[in-house]
Amino acid sequence: GADFKELAETRLFLEINVLPLTAERATEQDFSRLQQAVDLLRQGIEQKDHATCIAADIAFHRALFEASQNRVLASFADVMKEFFADIRRALFTEDALKVDERTVWEHQTICDALRRKEVRQAQETMYAHLSVYRSDKGMTDGIRTFVGHTEETRSNVRIFKRSNIQTRKGDTNR
Hints:
- By secondary structure, the protein is mainly alpha-helical.
- The protein contains nine helices and no strands.
């Protein structure tokens, strides 16, 4: 089976690379779902209801994939939900309101950037958002780091993209 590093790398790759499709294809209803998830997270924080925070986080990421209008990508949202459920519970604990508040800001920034079709800003914010898996909080809660330092992560993403491009160039069935 896949280890945490592989799952986290896959999540990082998918969540950053779904954003151009989301920006291009999202409907007003999709943006409404994204905003509802942000608002629900904000409500969960105000009420110190961490189950609501977890549900809102899951809803936001699922809505991003669904807004791509690509059913295969949308199906990954369910896979990611299952693999990262325990991690979310560890990160959204009663003493983690700073994580929650940062998450609201990041989710709102991603949503607003996508609405404005500012894909790069959305991608940079998503990259920072998913860095929680490399954080001290993640480490102390027993969550293994997935790629090490930021530059190593960027290198892995570049290698992943380059291999993807080479595969597509070599595909004669296209």
